[in-house]
Amino acid sequence: MSNYDYDLITIGAGSGGVRASRLAGGYGARVAVCEEDRVGGTCVLRGCIPKKLLIYGAHYADYMEDAKNYGWTFDGVKHDWRKLIENKNAELSRLNSIYLNILKNNNVDLKEGRGVLIDGHTVEVGGKQLTTENILIAVGGWPSMPDIPGIQYAISSNEALELPVLPRRMVIVGGGYIAVEFAGIFSGLGVDVTEIIRADNILRGFDNDMRVSLFEEMGKRGITIRTETEVRGIEKDGAIFHLRLGNEEIIETDCVMYATGRNANTKELGLEFAGIEMRSNGSIKVDEYNRTSQPHIYAVGDVTDRIQLTPVAIQEGHAVADMLFNNNTRTTDYKNVPSAVFSTPPIATIGLTEEEARVKYDKVDIYDSNFKPLVHTISGRDERSFMKLIVEPKSDVVVGCHMMGTDAPEIIQGIAIAMKCGATKAQFDSTTGIHPSSAEEFVTMRSKRD
Predict the structure, then answer these.
(1) 151-260: which CATH topology?
(2) What span, in angstroms and rounded, lies between the C-alpha atoms of 114 and 10?
(3) β-strands 297-299, 108-112 pairing
């Protein structure tokens, strides 16, 4: 046993930090985890889970509207925003309790407060200094705000999850996944939503057909998207906010939300005292084994700015614990990582976009399908689904798969397994479809796009 207080101290009790800590504790290591907020991190407390619960809540408006043509009649329907928030918070508390029990059951000491590095083997938390042989940094990210006049009047996604009342009008600044997801949430709950983006389309980095298709669907739902537009300042007049745009136009609204990116949560963490190399954006440099420039200090999750997804952080944390305390050195596979945007309708994707594939390969074959789902042939809703396969013709391997439409994340999760196995288009074609379903389109697409 070493002379240190602990074998591992983890700074940050989010998904990646908890996975690494509880596994290390289960392997017999002496482990402490430092957390300045509740245990659970961004995903459980301020991201995936609460956001998805609000998305579920907003979708009931669609279900009730669509049900009319299926013979259902609803009288006196109304929505109680406060009730939704109360129930969402109760679920987060339940999950927080589960995480606390996981740590306790694996003999992990929870230290409440922000862990700060004093040197390469010492962490200060709650006014006490603790020594450790290894350190894991898993502090995640935090919403970033631009430096413009009046930015103090804007909220981030953190506050959007806790609004005391629903505004009548809302402006969301940003075109990434967080922005389009919240646009769908609030629009579905009856808020008049305007989304402002600097680019010419939403979801930069996603397949262009998905971007165009979602833009059109959001417009059908009454969401106004102002492209190639910049906010120069925000002014407050009583309960009303005025946004001054780059062309000097003024937009009036009841709430302003910014979703213009997230930065690594590394400020005032003492990384400089441990000699840890950083990138210019504040994230931590690591190698394939999640090691920082100091071989006994590791970092996982959003703080490394690799792939900012909860399941990836969990895989990275698992790999660190295995390498340090279970004699199993391995790396995380970042190829063909599936992801989803829980927009309305949702998008899910795995592999290369068409644009990426055309750069990588001499030639690619594109198969796609744009259709109205069976449910909406009676519901009357003007909503379409779009599905797309990208194939490298020499090997016949499917190198990209994209879908916009109801249940896209559930469908793409299954396809992700096939793509991890290197499935070919011929294997897709030989697979029997489940009829009638939207998912069967992926095994019935036969005609290449010109």
Answers:
(1) FAD/NAD(P)-binding domain (3.50.50)
(2) 11
(3) unpaired
- The pTM of this model reads 0.96
Contacts of 395 (CB under 8 A, 6+ apart): 424
| Confidence at 104, pLDDT banded by 50, 70, 90 | very high
435 catalytic per annotation: yes
pLDDT at 2: 74
Sequence-separated (6 or more) residues with CB below 8 Å from residue 58:
184, 185, 186, 187, 188, 189, 344
Domain 151-260 shares a fold with domain 339-443? no
Q: What's the CATH fold of domain 339-443?
A: Enolase-like; domain 1 (3.30.390)
Distance from C-alpha of 182 to C-alpha of 174, rounded to nearest angstrom: 11
Question: Worst-scoring range by mean pLDDT, 75-79, 113-117, 361-365?
Answer: 75-79
- Per residue in 238-289, pLDDT (tens digit) is 999 999 999 999 999 999 999 999 999 999 999 999 999 999 999 999 999 9
Q: H helices within 151-258, ranges in order?
A: 157-160, 177-188, 208-220
The domains of the chain are located at 6-143+263-325, 151-260, 339-443
Q: Is 41 left (phi over 0), alpha (psi -120 to 50) or beta?
A: left
